[in-house]
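Progress report, Aim 2. The chain analyzed during this reporting quarter is listed below.
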Amino acid sequence: MTAIGDVTSVFAFWDGIEFEACENLGRLVAACPTVRRIAIVQPATKYPEELMVKSYNFPPLRLVDSIQVKMVGGAQHTAYVFEVLPSV
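Predicted structure tokens for the chain:
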């Protein structure tokens, strides 16, 4: 996939997703000027916006909120909601 179209929001559940797939999503979001919000569900991490930008090639982000979620079966994860910041 080389483009995601004129979407404004992206959601992904990352538990168990390969690193290269996360990088590819970051590149797709960076190339799509209409994306304004991203929600990622994954195990809790420190400094999630830095991880997204430095490790996964996302454009600059601001963490808007984080929400603790419990999956069917009892696994605990965190949903991180980011705002895509304008490119400088």
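Helices lie at 19-30, 48-56. The beta strands are 9-13, 37-42, 61-70, 76-84. These observations will guide the mutagenesis work planned for the next reporting period.
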